[in-house]
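Appendix B, Record 12. Input sequence as logged:
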Amino acid sequence: MIRTVHPAGDLAIETAGLTKTYANGVTAVDDLSLSAVRGEVFGLLGPNGAGKSTTIKILTTLARPDAGSARVAGFDVVRKVREVRRLIGVVSQHSGTDPAATAIENLRLQGRLYGLTGDELKSRIGQLLDRFELAEAARRPVKTFSGGMRRRLDIALGVIHRPLVLFLDEPTTGLDPEARSAMWREIEELAGDGVTVLLTTHYLDEADRLADRLALIDNGRLVVAGTPDELKSQLSGDAIHIELAPGHRPPGEAAALLGAIPELGDIAMEHRRLSARVAHGGVALPAALSALDRAGIDVVSATIARPSLDDVYLKHTGHSFAGAGREDAA
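Logged structural output:
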């Protein structure tokens, strides 16, 4: 789908020096500055504990920053709480529906909370049930819905009042591939309607597919930002990934061994997984495997890949996206 993304002067989300430290001393957001323009899907990516959830809490007026500023839909999130809340929609990781109520009842209650009544509310409910393919199940209790249906209803609840900015926190977690693909189409259509979507996700392929621009954060700080293609284009050549067999040889020995091979650069070791940047994977990988074999170091698997967002994350942080997670205190 071709979308119209508005110029940078038309900012829907803007933070400057945003900082939040909790009572336990953990700085969940550390001098974070980023922006999203109207009508784009902006991906906020990072492992558990990176600060995504805290950032969203601040942007949706559910937490106050200790320093810095944030504006959403043109309003300061601290000084103009009521205005911000009227103009945003929020879909959290966990469903906000009443499982004992029907889809219509859930949508009716949500609409009334935003001041919709009468024919306007009835018409809007009908539109959303049709758009999210829930009309046939509209009078069934939500507890009978599949995971994909419930997630679509969550988004319908989030946009019933036609928000300017929609926050989607891990919208496809736990969905099967078909439901996930359907959710991607819905997100693209929302952005096509001019809604700014801030998306957090643990799926890098999802961010690559959906995000017009994205920001990678780690330990509360901005690592790098740009379009997916811009970020991947910073990495030339190929990536090779080698998983070592479990054993008594220290993994660092393998990393040191490969470091002596001139063709390999940006070598990173995480647990038993070795990654490196190379100009030509088809030439460098056999040399790496031969060196490991001569040293008696067994390999479980080896792959060559074009640069990915995980490689971008690895380059800037020294660890892979998947391997960086820790319990999210933020």
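The mean pLDDT is 89.
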